[in-house]
What we know:
By secondary structure, the chain is mainly α. Helices cover 51% and strands 6% of the residues. The protein has helices spanning 9-14, 16-19, 28-51, 59-74, 81-85, 90-99, 101-109, 113-119, and strands at 126-130, 138-142.
Amino acid sequence: xxxxxxxxxxxxxxxxxxxxxxxxxxxxxxxxxxxxxxxxxxxxxxxxxxxxxxxxxxxxxxxxxxxxxxxxxxxxxxxxxxxxxxxxxxxxxxxxxxxxxxxxxxxxxxxxxxxxxxxxxxxxxxxxxxxxxxxxxxxxxxxxxxxxxxxxxxxxxx
Length: 158
């Protein structure tokens, strides 16, 4: 079987009962629009609280309240693909206000060298590509000799 095959969006749609709602590429524009609206709300609340001389709410309490609001939104029983595309925590959402959802997802996927040394596996012996075998399509291509009866790659149990 191929390691780098693209089954398309229908693969996730047909497995929703098992995998839950997985955001698709088409989910991100709506999620980004929501994040822009949320950012405006957070900025308005911050401006109002700073401009109100009678306000005795410290910044940490305001931050906590905004984090609680974000948690309520994320835990909504009305799940959707765009909702699943927004960051998982308010701290990551604040970063997404600056750089966008896609950048924060990239940042969250990068692991430290210490983590990789303890949990990682090297996959530099294969790369995605088009097979030189006629009509074989795309898949994983060896980057160096792989001895007969040896492992090509590790794979999680599914």
